[in-house]
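Box 3.1 A note on notation
Throughout this textbook, protein chains are presented in two layers. The first layer is the amino acid sequence; the second is a token string describing backbone geometry. Keep the layers aligned when reading.
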Amino acid sequence: MAHPSRSRAAASAHRRRWRTPLVIAVVVLLVLAGAWWWQGRAGGDAGSGYRTATVERGDIRVVISATGTLRAISTVDVGSQISGLVTEVLADFNDQVSRGQVIARIDPSTYQAQIEQGTASANAARASLATAEAALRNAEADYRRKSELGRSQLVSASDVDVARTALDQARAQVNAARAQITQQQASTQTSRLNLERTEIRSPVDGVVLTRTVEPGQTVAASLQAPVLFQIAEDLSQMEIELAIDEADIGQVVSGQGVSFTVDAFPDRRFRGEVQQIRLSATNTNNVITYPVVVAVDNADQVLLPGMTANAEIEVSRRDAVLRVPNAALRYKPAEDAGIAPPQRGAGGFDGDIAALGAGLGLDATQQSALDAALERMRGQAAQRRTAAASTGAGAGGPAPQAAGGAPSGDMQAAMRQRTGERLAAQFADFRATLDEVRQAEWDRGLAALAGARRAPLYLLEGGGVRAVMVRVGASDGSWTEVSGPLEDGDQVVVGSERPS
């Protein structure tokens, strides 16, 4: 017969074996329920059937990526103007050289011999000149005698003519001898110059990048000067030549910041500045690019000529702006979703225009004129919305459609032009209160507002979706700046949930 205490112990052990798996199952279910609730909270209303993202404030940095090669700002090819045997090479790779320093010598014996030959020829020409001058003096004396005798008719006129001819010939011989001396002196001077050129000197202060000559090598400069050395003038200042695509070149201006990396220092980012946009376009496989020169400070001289630079030109930077993921701008609802299209019109400009005016530093009178113009604009927009509601059209009237159902590019340009003209007319009185400098700034800002691209966004509100039209600004490929009837923290639709 079983003991009662043993039966109770067995029953207790049996209950513990079943209780442990039950507790684990409950914990797992609670974790799954929490995860499901969090996903539903992050993705918007779980029953709405939409995936959403949050409108937030952040920075947008727009860059253009390109590659180029680092090089010295000024690189000089040092050659030889004369031919001859190289006797000495006094500079090597990476040597620092100064302006005028002798870096190589060519055998001078040929040119020394030419100088001696020219000196002897000049001396011979001087001797010929002395002989010609003596003959000239004799011819002058003979001509004077015969000329006096001719006036007394003691000699014939033909003898006087012969004496005059001899005098002219003697003078010509003197001039020829003098010309011969000048010629020999010039030839000797050329030889002296060539003798000086047997010493190859550095034309700049810099560092030797390449050396292509060795002692004992013969230099032939008959057709063109051979390059013996290549000297970089200053490696503390360098430059990069980037090839920028024609689609991006319109965004590049001088003075823009550039950041780049090189393979030698992958964890270090260097800085530069756009210095020049060159007009010499290059066509490579029907791709048009323009060279852009970037100035680089290389004070520590860690950057070397020839390194490949992976550069980014910062063409725009927007700090603390409203931004949405690009997926929100790509989202289009299904035709049967029952979402009303966004209203079109000038509404929503007032906040941007007020901010534009605030940046001009207005006085009380100018601020009052701006406020009055804004009130008139809001009133006109309200009247247009009322009129549109009575006719069943959008706030700005039906948008002109192209054949595909969306406004064509020309139509959109015409709409932006009309919007700009309307804004200019509405704020003409306020603009008249500004000076010329602030008028120009106002015109640029107003033109940017009127010409901004617009796109629809779909806000998730209380389980429903409302379409709004926003102005689209800068984009970095992931985020896009937007402005209009939305605020930080709003939920925008980025996609629809797929049916399970």
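The chain has nine helices and 20 strands. Residues 143 and 406 are 110 Å apart (CA to CA).
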